[in-house]
Inverse folding.
């Protein structure tokens, strides 16, 4: 069965799902997006994902293509038509199509596309069990990383550089030597004193939806947490390090720039958080 995508009002087989050649998403990366997990038929954390999309669009002065209730219906219909209960939904809103001009065209209608691709939870679980390697890369992004913009070139280049070093993720490092986030994840450490640390969201990182869920779960479990920046050196001396994102849940890092983290195996804190996150997903 061919995959079905939603494009500006129509549900189409993916091969026929196209946008206008002068769509500003295509020509200027002028848009915002969300990636949302479907787990066991449940759409995880849909409400905060819709809220973050609305905020990104408002910061970019792009009008929302429809209200949240209608958008929810469309997302559910895309999932239903793709007959899957484990998937990643990709939803993108661009400013729309118009004659190419940097300034906003007048009376432009936003363009909405939604795709749904099967997510391999067995592979995700295997990675969570084994842990992955990560490499540091300079953070060369713009100064509005709080917006989930579709303009991702620095993230792509950093991820590719990390992959070429045999790493799963690029850990982005700012000009002060402080870790910001991953190329498509938020980054966490556990200090030798047992405190969970992740960079604060008022510090120009993407406010990850999984990050928020993990903070809530950790607080419920009475784990000490600090939201603050940390250096590469502090990360290398951490007992645990892990990533969070909608697609990877909480992913242990066992080596950073080839230095083992802790004993070089996924640690107990991330294991407990993954267990609690699964319970949270099951309860949606
Ligand atoms: C740069 C960046 N940071 C963090 C995340 C994690 O966000 P979330 O947990 O909402 O998936 C993403 C996800 O795409 C990302 O692109």
């Amino acid at each position: 069965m061919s995959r079905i995508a939603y494009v500006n009002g129509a549900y189409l087989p993916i091969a026929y799902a196209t946008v206008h050649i002068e769509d500003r998403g295509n020509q200027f990366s002028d848009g915002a997006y969300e990636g949302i997990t479907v787990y066991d038929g449940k759409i995880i954390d849909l409400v905060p994902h819709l809220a973050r999309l609305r905020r990104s669009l408002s910061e970019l002065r792009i009008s929302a293509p429809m209200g949240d209730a209608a958008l929810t219906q469309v997302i559910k219909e895309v999932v239903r038509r793709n007959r899957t209960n484990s998937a990643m939904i990709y939803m993108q809103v661009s400013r729309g199509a118009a004659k190419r001009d940097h300034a906003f065209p007048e009376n432009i209608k936003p363009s909405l596309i939604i795709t749904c691709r099967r997510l391999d939870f067995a592979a995700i679980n295997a990675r969570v069990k084994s842990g992955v390697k990560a490499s540091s890369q300079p953070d060369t992004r713009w100064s509005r990383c709080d917006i989930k913009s579709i303009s991702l070139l620095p993230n792509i280049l950093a991820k590719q550089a990390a992959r070429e070093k045999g790493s799963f993720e690029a850990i982005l490092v700012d000009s002060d030597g402080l870790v910001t986030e991953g190329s498509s994840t938020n980054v966490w450490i556990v200090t030798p004193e047992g405190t969970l640390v992740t960079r604060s969201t008022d510090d120009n990182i993407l406010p990850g939806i999984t990050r928020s869920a993990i903070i809530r779960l950790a607080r419920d479990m009475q784990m000490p947490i600090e939201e603050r920046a940390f250096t590469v050196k502090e990360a290398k001396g951490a007992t645990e390090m892990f990533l969070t994102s909608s697609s990877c849940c909480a992913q242990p890092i066992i080596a950073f720039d080839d230095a083992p983290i802790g004993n070089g195996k996924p640690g107990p804190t991330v294991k407990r958080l993954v267990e609690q996150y699964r319970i949270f997903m099951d309860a949606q």
Notes: The chain has a mean pLDDT of 97.
